Amino acid sequence: TGSLIAIYAMKHYKFRAADFIGYIRLMRPGSVLGPQQQFLNDKESKYLKLADKSPIYQSILPFIRDS
């Protein structure tokens, strides 16, 4: 479940894999371990590129640029 949520966060909010893994481990210790962590790191660039086309990311982009 943590890996799926991480992919969603990377694709729609441009969360970096390491940042999300740190966050999810604070919220739910033991999440995203071993092969899952490596998978997320391997897929990070693909999903960060897809974020530029995401309507969710486009809707929050003005708020990100202002800060």
Radius of gyration: 12 Å
DSSP helix fraction? over 70%
Gross geometry:
globular
Strand content: under 5%
The main β sheet shows up as: none
Q: Label the structural class.
A: mainly alpha
Helix count, per DSSP? Answer: 4
The total of beta strands comes to 0
Please report the distance between the alpha carbons of the first and last residues: 31 Å
Unreliable parts: none
SSE arrangement, N to C: HHHH
Structure characterization notes:
By secondary structure, the protein is mostly helical. 78% of the residues lie in helices and 0% in strands. The protein has helices at residues 2-13, 17-27, 35-51, 55-66. 18% of the residues are buried.
Keyword list:
78% helix, globular, 4 helices, single chain, 67 residues, mainly alpha
What is shown here, in short?
It is built from 4 helices and no strands.
Topology:
Elements: H1 2-13, H2 17-27, H3 35-51, H4 55-66
Helix pairs in contact: 1-2, 1-3
